[in-house]
């Protein structure tokens, strides 16, 4: 009835709605710090742009090329407009890359732990997944990844900063890695959280000008606060770009999503404010976890992954007190999205009471 590869999947578990959870736990207020969403909302420019959208266009198919958004992004990054591909969220781009590149029996190198969708979609295409452990500090182990290369390797997934550890690799490190990888292997660098890195020149987008086997992924869902609108994109060169374009769904971005994304993308002041606040709050989280003697990884993103002993118990305790965080990624560990300052201090207060009771 179905293909063999889909019989043994570990499907992505989407978030329950806040209303459902509130009802289930009898809560008045519940703050979701489990999905790495932007706790500060999105740019006010988004509402303004959508208000002036012509609903009379609702019956028309959207611009298949998302030209307006395409121009904004290509201009900012100084790349060719033809080197951009949009998806209904980065999720769809990840699915498309697997669909276009992988055949049954191909090999994929996937760090453990990392974002689970790489593995899911590689599996659906019948690829064999080679998982390479992170190093002790939670960083991707590029030397170990290199050792797993075989003539069958088709994709290497590099999440940078890595979800869920938050660890960040410098572009120079990724460049040396790319120099050692054969052209036949596509290296996919997922920069979903790159805006949160507190340094300059952290992206490898410019390296796509040099490496034809490099694909860089970005999303509007995190720092731009637009998760509900589902806009992500890939930067890469032909010929891969042409194949991806040929295989994608023609109208995968609604005009509504394109209008929202263009407005959000242009409001760099909003993103700067969010990123600065997150950076300050991250320092406070580091201090708090250090003080509580809870092990954690060095995060450059808007979340922190920490070890909590009985993580089910702490997860449940925080949920009953109105804060949902992410459990189930690694036994004993929890990932918390860095939220608004008042929520971060509230969670820290709850945790201090829990651990020092
Ligand atoms: C959130 C996330 C995505 C998915 O982003 P969408 O654009 O919302 O689909 C992709 N990669 C990583 C690492 C993420 O954490």
From TrEMBL:
GO terms for biological process: L-histidine biosynthetic process. Residues 29-343 form the Aminotransferase class I/classII large domain. One of its GO terms (molecular function) is pyridoxal phosphate binding. The modification N6-(pyridoxal phosphate)lysine is found at residue 222. It comes from the Bacteria. Its cofactor is pyridoxal 5'-phosphate. It catalyses: L-histidinol phosphate + 2-oxoglutarate = 3-(imidazol-4-yl)-2-oxopropyl phosphate + L-glutamate. Pfam families: Aminotran_1_2. Its EC number is 2.6.1.9. Pathway: Amino-acid biosynthesis; L-histidine biosynthesis; L-histidine from 5-phospho-alpha-D-ribose 1-diphosphate: step 7/9. It is an enzyme of class 2 (transferase). Keywords: Amino-acid biosynthesis, Aminotransferase, Histidine biosynthesis, Pyridoxal phosphate, Transferase. PANTHER family: HISTIDINOL-PHOSPHATE AMINOTRANSFERASE, HISTIDINOL-PHOSPHATE AMINOTRANSFERASE 2. Belongs to the class-II pyridoxal-phosphate-dependent aminotransferase family. Histidinol-phosphate aminotransferase subfamily. Homodimer. This is Histidinol-phosphate aminotransferase. It comes from Lentilactobacillus hilgardii (strain ATCC 8290 / DSM 20176 / CCUG 30140 / JCM 1155 / KCTC 3500 / NBRC 15886 / NCIMB 8040 / NRRL B-1843 / 9).
């Amino acid at each position: 009835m179905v293909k063999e590869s889909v019989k043994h999947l570990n499907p992505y578990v989407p978030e329950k709605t806040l209303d459902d959870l509130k009802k289930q736990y009898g809560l008045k207020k519940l703050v979701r710090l489990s999905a790495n969403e932007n706790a500060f909302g999105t740019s006010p420019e988004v509402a303004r742009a959508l208000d002036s959208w012509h609903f009379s266009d609702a019956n028309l198919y959207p611009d298949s090329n998302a030209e307006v958004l395409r121009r904004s992004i290509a201009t900012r990054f100084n790349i060719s407009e033809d080197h951009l591909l949009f998806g209904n969220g980065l999720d769809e781009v990840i699915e498309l890359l697997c669909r276009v590149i992988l055949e049954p029996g191909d090999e994929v190198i996937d760090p453990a732990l990392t974002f689970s969708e790489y593995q899911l979609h590689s599996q659906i295409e019948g690829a064999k997944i080679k998982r390479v452990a992170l190093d002790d500090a939670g960083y991707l182990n590029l030397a170990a990844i290199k050792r797993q290369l075989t003539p069958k390797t088709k994709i290497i997934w590099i999440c940078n900063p890595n979800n869920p550890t938050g660890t960040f690799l410098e572009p120079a490190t990724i460049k040396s890695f790319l120099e050692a990888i054969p052209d036949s292997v596509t290296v996919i660098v997922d920069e979903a959280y790159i805006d949160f890195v507190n340094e300059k020149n952290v992206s490898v987008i410019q390296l796509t000008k040099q490496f034809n086997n490099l694909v860089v992924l970005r999303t509007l869902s995190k720092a731009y606060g637009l998760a509900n609108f589902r806009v992500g994109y890939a930067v890469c060169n032909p010929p891969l770009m042409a194949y991806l374009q040929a295989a994608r769904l023609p109208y995968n971005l609604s005009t509504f999503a394109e209008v929202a994304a263009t407005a959000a993308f242009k409001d760099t002041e909003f993103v700067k404010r969010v990123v600065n606040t997150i950076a300050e709050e991250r320092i406070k989280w580091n201090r708090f976890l250090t003080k509580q003697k809870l092990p954690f990884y060095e995060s450059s993103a808007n979340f922190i992954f920490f070890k909590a002993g009985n993580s089910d118990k702490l997860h449940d305790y925080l949920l009953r007190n109105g804060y949902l965080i992410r459990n189930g990624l690694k036994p004993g560990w929890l990932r918390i999205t860095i939220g608004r300052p008042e929520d971060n201090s509230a969670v820290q207060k709850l945790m201090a009471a829990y651990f020092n009771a």
